[in-house]
Specification:
alpha+beta
Amino acid sequence: MQSIQTTKLSNGITVVTENIPTVHSFSIGFWFNVGSRDENSRTAGISHFLEHMLFKGTHKRSAKKIAESVESVGGYLNAFTSKEHTCFYGRGLVEHLPMTFDILADLVQNPKLKPSDIDKERGVILDEFKDIQDTPSDLIFDVFEESLFKGNMLSSPIIGTEKNISGFDHETLAAYHARHYGTNNLVIVCSGRVEHDKMVALAEKNFSSRKVSPGKRKRAIAVLPVSKSIIKDITQVHCILGRSSYGYESDERVKLSMLSGILGGGTSSRLYQAVRERSGSTYQINTFVNSYLDTSAFGIYFSTGPEQKMKVLSVIEREIKNLAEKGINVRELKRIKELKKGGLVMGLESTTNRMMRIASSILNHGRIIPVEEVLEKINAVTQQELNIEAKRLLESESFLRIFIESGPEQKRA
């Protein structure tokens, strides 16, 4: 932890650095505490649209100049929008950190948002939207969370709706940027061979004070389990069985993650062994946990042929019942602890992973959680605790069931 330093500037920016003297590069992220959850039905998709537009040029740099400036020195720039955050990040050799910082600071503060650029990028995003609609393995996760978080903006897909994407203009995007992209809504995190004082100086040089007043997020509430089927002209059946569970604010999340791993995380998990290895009924089967501040989406995803659908569902139901009623064994407890610890520690060999872990910790927990503390929490979980949690989590009556499959017309074809 001594290598990690934090400074809160007078303009509200939080600057965090992790000095790793053994590397010759850096990973830096500008994290804004805004995502699709902060939108409404009229603006759904605007966070993602704005993320795209910030790379289309500023008042002193064209889109081409932004790309060429970084790539010409071997660096990399990218961004992503989640339901709760938007991150603009870069990698490069340490001698090019000041330039990369300057470019990122420019594009997040001074986007040009030219109407002609908006219209061109609209076509790109609509194409991305249609790709998702044509990819059942992507679409089903949006449909699942639409049902799971009904009544909350967590239910809205990050990309938004086709209608909204088609209607965003300069005034709407500029107003959203002004309302959310303030200095007090920004966390800057950098991992690599970096000096904290120099990073603070870069932040003070490149940012003035422009504070915003973010709105309060509506907490998610549990919904009644439903079964939903979407008909597509496809050959496979895609399915998610799942429910809501603990969010980042709960200490119980570590148990949720471990149970998910035991049930469907990796090739030695119960579902992989039962459904794929012993039954040979599917190529894709896994569990997942999509976590948010106050809740999460836990689920089992699989795809298979229509003729195997009921067989796979039957095996999954059997495995869920066995785990809920009989619990885990000592060997499984040891395996999942080593799997979780190994994944965490090996991930620390990437400066980008380290940067993202620190940012997630600050944004979701309000502090930097030491790796040692996470490892201690994993080690402290007992077999009895996981068995109690399994009974709570794996009540199959509480599961939503989402299918994307072919209809009768397609099946007869």
